[in-house]
Amino acid sequence: MVVGEMIEERDLVIIGGGPGGYTAAIRAAQLGQKVTLIEKDVLGGVCLNKGCIPSKVWAYAARKKSEIPHMESLGFDLVESGLDLGKLLAYKDQVTTQLRKGVEALCSANQVEVIQGAATFTSDNKIGVENGHQFDIYQFKKAIIATGSTPVLPGELSDVRENVILSDALYEFEEIPESLIVYGSDELALEVASVYSEFGSKVTLILPDSLGLDASIEKELMRVFKKKKVKVIKGAEEFSAEQTDQGILVSLVDDKGKSQSIEAVYLYTSGERQPNVQDLGLNRFGVDQADDGRVVVNHMAQSSNPDIYAVGDVTAEGPNLAVKAIKHGKVAAEAIAEGYPEVDLTFLPTIIHTTPPVASVGMTESDAKESGIEYRTGEFSLKANGYAMLSGQKEGLVKVISDANTEIVLGIHMIGAGAIELSSNFVQLLEMAAKEEDVTFPNFAHPSMDEGLLEAVEALTGQAIHQPPSRKKVNV
User: Fold this and answer.
1) How many other C-beta atoms lie within 10 A of the C-beta of residue 437?
2) Which of 313, 315, 319, 351 lies closest to 150, judged by CA?
3) What is the SS3 assignment for the chain?
4) Is 133 designated active site?
5) pLDDT tens digits, one per residue of 242-264
6) Which top CATH class is 356-461?
7) Selected catalytic residue, list 353, 413, 446, 466
8) Which of 86, 142, 195, 349 is spaced 20 to 30 A from 170 at the CA atom?
């Protein structure tokens, strides 16, 4: 190893070029900062290259496959010959490459200096970067940690290596597995179960924990899974897995106390996310960390060391989502530029790319009940929506929870086509503490999936037009 003879000075150094890191870099450059971005692999991070984007390519393909029967009803003469995974893999690579080149071009256009190498803190204001035999040291005024996280097998699966897969491998399959066990209650596990059942795998979904969704949304999702012939097992006491000649055998006790054994070619699990902080040496330089190593930050993504910020998966608050990393990155850059931004994850949407998709923001009915609020609910089935009918996407519903006394909307939940695109509207309504009238007063395009939200709010008072009358009551 050759150690650089000089220490180079930088204003802002960012470690990690994923969504949080490159967003922070570009926003800081927009605000006049001279930015150095250090990435040991490729720009875009796990999200763009191995996670968010590849998984959504798979989800999009599954959704399009589900539309083939309706396309035939519309008069298109389609012959379904099966899925060519080779072409899908090539398309995924094409998309990720184009997006990665876009990030590279944006960094260049904003004069962000990008350095290849593995970084570590050598003091509270210096970072060492190793790249092959070269080792350089950079002294910084401010630094942002955006190193993300890595999935690891949960303890109950740590001794079973073959035929147990994490998300990275799932989107590199060269053939569809005949059978697949999906173990997990998180958004990605639900997405995997939906995608691979659509692709033709015999899927068993094991839910060890609560989904955390509103009961009406969960009920509809379980109905859809049953229709798609996905076997769902709730509860996973005494869970164990062992290798077999055919693949893997899982044994467990479900939530009804019944012992079950399931065999499949592969077992998928989202795993446990481990923050990528082990090699940074943070504990030596006044950076407080949680028990699992995640960095503790304030509302401006600032750590206990005022010159060091952290964004995304490496932070202790909130879920491991790209949307959190992106928000963190912008806020950290704006704070370093002496602004007064704030990270608020109160109305962070839950998004699940199943077919149909799910979007959930704010209080569920269970949350409202537990908080002691007098509330009311309104539901509207998409089967009664004109655009859902003509597009053949009738599965799903919209549910709204509001305060019965103030009429403030507390939560909006949807399963159905367009849910993800509508989720930003849900967030805006809750952020502005919208009342029911704020939804019912504006004009909604017709026909559109958006009308499902309007009629769900109207259903709070029994005034949904395309829904039979029902008795509404205030819930306590």
Assistant:
1) 10
2) 313
3) CEEEEEEEEEEEEEECCCHHHHHHHHHHHHCCCCEEEEECCCCCHHHHHCCHHHHHHHHHHHHHHHCHHHHHHCCCCCCCCCCCHHHHHHHHHHHHHHHHHHHHHHHHHCCCEEEECEEEEEECCEEEEEECCEEEEEEEEEEEECCCEEEECCHHHCCCCCCEECHHHHCCCCCCCCEEEEECCCHHHHHHHHHHHHHCCEEEEEECCCCCCCHHHHHHHHHHHHHCCCEEEECCEEEEEEECCCCEEEEEECCCCCEEEEEECEEEECCEEEECCCCCCHHHCCCCECCCCCECCCCCCECCCCCEEECHHHECCCCCCHHHHHHHHHHHHHHHCCCCCCCCCCCCCEEECCCCCEEEEECCHHHHHHHCCCEEEEEEEHHHCHHHHHHCCCCCEEEEEEECCCCEEEEEEEECCCHHHHHHHHHHHHHCCCEHHHHHCCCCCCCCCCHHHHHHHHHHHCCCCCCCCCCCCCEC
4) no
5) 988 889 999 999 999 999 999 99
6) alpha beta
7) 446
8) 349
- For residues 314 and 148, is the Cβ–Cβ distance under 8 A? yes
* Tens digits of residue pLDDT in 396-426: 999 999 999 999 999 999 999 999 999 999 9
Question: Does 3 score more than 90 pLDDT?
Answer: no
pLDDT of residue 1: 47
Flag whether pLDDT at 392 surpasses 70. Answer: yes
Gap between the Cα atoms of 157 and 168, Å rounded: 17
The average pLDDT across 307-326 equals: 95
Instruction: Work out the average pLDDT over 363-389.
Output: 97
Fold (CATH) for 2-150+274-336: FAD/NAD(P)-binding domain (3.50.50)
Instruction: CATH 3.30.390.30 in the chain: give the residue spans.
Output: 356-461
Name the average pLDDT for the chain. Answer: 94
Determine if the pTM surpasses 0.85: yes
Query: Distances in Å between the alpha carbon of 241 and those of 160, 181, 186, 249, 262?
Result: 7, 11, 20, 6, 9
CATH 3.50.50.60 positions along the chain are 2-150+274-336, 154-270
Whether 176 has a pLDDT exceeding 50, the answer reads: yes
Nearest to 309 by CA among 25, 9, 45: 25
User: For residue range 262-308, what is the model confidence (pLDDT) as tens digits?
Assistant: 999 999 998 889 999 998 989 888 899 999 999 999 999 999 999 99
Task: Please tell me the predicted confidence (pLDDT) of residue 271.
Answer: 87
Looking up tokens 């979007």 gives 359
Q: 154-270, superfamily in CATH?
A: FAD/NAD(P)-binding domain (3.50.50.60)
In angstroms, the CA 192 to CA 186 distance is 10
